[in-house]
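User: I'm writing a tutorial on reading structure tokens. Could you give me a worked example: one chain, its sequence, then its tokens, then a sentence or two explaining what the tokens reveal?
Assistant: Sure. Here is the example chain.
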Amino acid sequence: MRKKGLVVMGLVMALGLSGCGNEKESPATTAATTAAATEAATEAVTETTTEAATETTTEAATEAATEAPATSSDAPTGDGLVSEEELQKGFVWLNKVKPEPFKTTYEELAEYFGVDGAFEKEEYSDKMKVNKRYYKWISTEDENHFIYVNLDEKEPGVYSVSGFNSSGFTSADAEAAYLEEVQGEAKEADKANAANAETAAATYDVSEFGNKDNTVKVTLDQPGSGWAWDEKKTQLVASDDINSFGAGFIKFTVNKEVDKFDTYMDKFENYEEVEDRVIGGITMKGRKYDYIGYSWTEYVGQISDGTAIAVGIVDVDIDEGTMGDKILNSVKFE
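And here are its predicted structure tokens:
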């Protein structure tokens, strides 16, 4: 564009100088010369203007093409109204009881509360490169009591929880009032699921650290979905994704003698012994303690001379009839 402007100016100046240098030209010639200059200048300016418009249009089109993907307009919505009790129990369920809360889909939330949430807004996060939706579930007793949930489109058409908070009540108050009840409800749901779940026998090698010669084959009935084996950590994870944040697990560890599992016992917190349990035909000593950020239930036993095993459970319900109980009852050591 700048070059075109300079060409126009040069053309006008050249024509002007040409007219000035020929003193014998007639008025008609001068007029014709001026008209030609004007026409040339007009054409050049028109061309420059057209190019500028084209560049502007192209720039706008390019910018539009690189804008964020448009969000859809088919977000489900309702009034989000639930009782105060249902609201606080829902928060406790999501915050303390639901396995893998950040994989909870909108549909699961709506099913738990029994109603669609009140749709707040939808947007595309350029920073996160993801479509986002925001919902509320609101107390019928006080509109200032609600749960605000952020959901991301982690898979096409599937929105899962990415964050949530409460307003009008504290997590501590909700847990004090409803945690035990919500846990009981979850246990009954787990039992119903375990009773109908399809399983298949799976065998995994578990070796003493640094000693492949001391290896135990662990065979167990593994659910067809919702559980996966982490070979590196030798544990069965209560998720299809072994790296899922917050997923519970059942860990198997091999050593030479049972007392080797007490190496870090001085760092165990809230230690207590619990009832023994038969696993794989072996009566194993039971205990609970907190260690490295986890609350463990652990059973230890001697399989044979030079081979002992520990079964550690974290965030998996192993009460009678649950999926965890079903898995432990199926274990065999070889």
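What the tokens reveal: Residues 1-71 have pLDDT under 50 and may be disordered. Residues 219 and 295 are 25 Å apart (CA to CA).
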